[in-house]
Amino acid sequence: MANHTKVVLAYSGGLDTSVILRWLQESYGCEIVTYTADLGQGAELERARDKAEKMGVQEIFVDDIREEFVRDFVFPMFRCNTVYEGEYLLGTSIARPLIAKRLVEVAKLTSSDAIAHGATGKGNDQVRFELGINALGSDIEVIAPWRDWDLNSREALIKFCEKHQIEVDMKSGENPSPYSMDANILHISYEGGLLEDPSSEPDESMWQWTTALEKTPDEPTYIEIGYKEGDPIMLDGQKMQASEILSKLNLIGGENGIGRIDIVENRYVGMKARGCYETPGGTILLKSHRAIESLTLDREVMHLKDELMPRYASLIYNGYWWSPERYAIQAMVDQTQKPVNGAVRLKLYKGNVIVVGRESKTDSLYDADVVTFEDDAGAYDQADASGFIKLNALRLKIASEKGRKF
Predict the structure, then answer these.
(1) Has 125 been annotated as catalytic?
(2) Quick check: is 334 catalytic?
(3) What's the pLDDT tens digit per position in 275-305?
(4) Which terminus of the chain faces fewer neighbouring Cβ atoms within 10 Å, N or C?
């Protein structure tokens, strides 16, 4: 085991990281710095500060990074209409590069020589954290206790807490949540427990952000989102910060039962895993962004973005936010967003996000004079289609004449 003088721990104050804090103190005999990120998860983060103080930590960082998270990570991701494997809006994945960035910054600020995290050895987060740390702080070592210690169950962790008199929120005699959960301002996820059987329907009581469809309003909710260069800047005519827009959309979307998914996804480490997610605001933003792009983007530019999106999504899911290839794709995507300006009107009703209107007074490529079914006054010559079709059909015609069967 390497010698370390000071270690920064990604700390939530929950069971796992409370055990890790004491384990690091015992195993390395070094000073521990705790870092707790406020990503809008709704937890009482000052409790994490209090618990760290009780465990002898002198340098404690509790960091509100909600606006940076949405502005610099979530919105750039949505500029590419990013979805992993057709459904997952990457709520956990996109938070990890920012946490890694702040961990490295805190490590440098405090002259720490290592960073520790609580990601398990079976998941994607260990990869995401460590790729980010290596990209931004190559001289900082990483400690991953779940790959080193012999505490391999919740029961073992609780016994460790009892032995070392560590205060935890969840004792073995109480009713612990059956799920492994992760929340931030973009989403909340549920894994493990009852969900490990992919054939079982989740209990309705599991969902925390979204109303069951049977209980949603019987009247639709209408909203309007205003865009500037691909990013939402206004909601219902009111200019807001990025995190304010997403928070408001979470509430509106959740009330209308929007944003629930239940998927089996392919983890980067090689296994399939079943996860349930609530992403109400993100689901609305994805639909509205595609709507404003449909009006303002050139056809080939839009199709090129669609071709790149799955690769871009995989880079985020697998932890390569800080990679040169992600930067390259992002630069191209951001360039395409300059004309993506305007507003989209949406109807939210019983889990559905329905586009009912879109307009761009400055950048619309829609020309009613060309597309009309009425007299277009010569704006479009339909006879031009004959030569266009003949040229594009030529290879098919030759193949048919040669008896080629495909």
Answers:
(1) yes
(2) no
(3) 999 999 999 999 999 999 999 999 999 999 9
(4) C
